[in-house]
Amino acid sequence: MPPDPVALLQDGAARHARGDLAGAERLYRQVLRHSPGEPNAHNLLGVLARQRGDVAGALRHTERALAAGPEVPAFLANRGAALAEAGRLPEAVAALRAALARRPEDPVTLRNLGQALCALGDPGAALAPLDAAARLQPAAPEPLLALAHARRESGDAEGAAAAAEAALDRAGGDAALAGQAHFLLAALGHGPAPDRAPAAYVRDLFDQFAPRFEAELTGRLAYATPALLARLLEESGTPPRRALRVLDLGCGTGLSGAALAPFARRLEGLDLSPRMLAEARRRGLYDALHEADLLDWLPGRPAGFELIAAADVLNYLGDLGPALRAIAGALAPGGLALFSVEAGEGAPFALGEAMRYRHDPAHVAALAAEAGLAPVARREAALRTERGVPVAGALFVLSRPR
Ligand SMILES: C[S@@+](CC[C@H](N)C(=O)[O-])C[C@H]1O[C@@H](n2cnc3c(N)ncnc32)[C@H](O)[C@@H]1O
């Protein structure tokens, strides 16, 4: 007797719901062995792949499911979610809308649609689906937090703060979610700015951004920081002779690594976003990549790097004291620190509405001196554009004395 596929799928889904992903996968695959192409098994394998961060697998399985059942709302919804993870946003929006046309009251799909529309730069269109998601799940903080971000991006700061407060109320013991709501409130001027952006916020932000990061930064955002830092390094006396042991902090997809490579005998990268790191790995430029928060990883490292760079990274930290001390500690004597900050004035640091920190360059210089780093060069620069306006920054080269 061949096993009953319905029973196998039910058993698999129950394991899936309990978090036993390996057990669920085994049963779904068993279904496919007996009924190749069975769309529910493909659909659930697609969900499972997405949970594991296997975007290619999620795309493959959801495509198979949808080919067999193009009208099934769950297949359309999971296809849309996989496309959104892959950064294929217009296709994701179409699939999610098609799912909602057949099953309008699906809060997860409404939230996915809202977040995809925000990522596409249309937060106004995201408001209705996110409102609906929040109404359908009144006790859940996640849709409210997503709604708060969409309101902030569409210019409704007060509405954003109200939604963030409501998310905070419902966050319960979820410290990561509460931290994100507090951070958003602080960026909106409700409450003091924390010393840094929550790591979970930065990781989620860049995980979502990873597939589109390079196209957006080098295109619409005219991102210039890596090239500007490399030029300042060379002009301040370090020739690009592939001679240095280099660490690229917050390496992202490797745009900064590409600018640093001509200086590097060995190039290591570090980032807390696994999906940015996956893109960097594909680039094939780094000798080693580390998934970590720089504030956890750097302290206690042997003083071995000859150049530590951070391009467009320190704007996710408020108090730069710990980072500068950790950088100084990981530099070999005579080693160089090279980084950018977004420039502010007056306060040592301020959290902007765009949820990044600005730093007063004079204060950064004072902190660097306290950390034992001597000035080599400093320059004002436009780091990139945002909504068509140049983002003012400061570039630093500092050295650890011999
Ligand atoms: C705007 S991107 C810049 C990436 C790269 N340096 C470049 O120039 O293209 C900022 C990167 O810093 C990473 N990042 C931010 N804070 C970090 C931290 N505390 N530890 C490690 N990585 C961090 C983010 O995950 C993201 O990939």
From TrEMBL:
Record organism: Belnapia mucosa
Keyword annotations from UniProtKB, A to Z: Repeat, TPR repeat
SMART domains (UniProt xref): TPR
Boundaries of every Methyltransferase domain copy: 246-335
Pfam families registered for this protein in UniProt: Methyltransf_25, TPR_16
Classification via InterPro entries: CellSynth/LPSAsmb/PSIAsmb, Methyltransf_25, SAM-dependent_MTases_sf, TPR-like_helical_dom_sf, TPR_rpt
Residue stretches spanning the membrane: none
Lineage: Bacteria, Pseudomonadati, Pseudomonadota, Alphaproteobacteria, Acetobacterales
UniProt name for this protein: Tetratricopeptide repeat protein
